Amino acid sequence: MQCFRKKEFQPRQLIQKMNVHLVATTDDPISNLDYHKLLKNEEDKNGFKVLPTFRPDKVMDIMNTDFLTYMEQLGGSFRPCHWKL
């Protein structure tokens, strides 16, 4: 297990070593995507892009007692995306 603590086994280094160019994550639509913003600033250094994708779990769970509250949050969080791919 000690070998996994080495720098070459950290996520970024593994992604780079495997020659990955794009990582797609599943994100809640109301997520602020702060980590994506940080990674966007490091794209050139990292050598790969990280893009969010729609995770519909909460949108589909209409039986959840918090569903209407979530829908209100979702409606208030809409903002156009101005990222260039």
UniProtKB/TrEMBL annotation:
SUPFAM superfamilies: Metallo-dependent hydrolases (SSF51556). GO terms for molecular function: glucuronate isomerase activity. It catalyses: D-glucuronate = D-fructuronate. Pfam families: UxaC. InterPro entries: Metal_Hydrolase (IPR032466), Uronate_isomerase (IPR003766). The keyword Iron-sulfur does not apply. Its EC number is 5.3.1.12. Keywords: Isomerase. PANTHER family: PHOSPHOLIPID_GLYCEROL ACYLTRANSFERASE DOMAIN-CONTAINING PROTEIN (PTHR30068:SF3), URONATE ISOMERASE (PTHR30068). This is Uronate isomerase. It comes from Tigheibacillus halophilus.
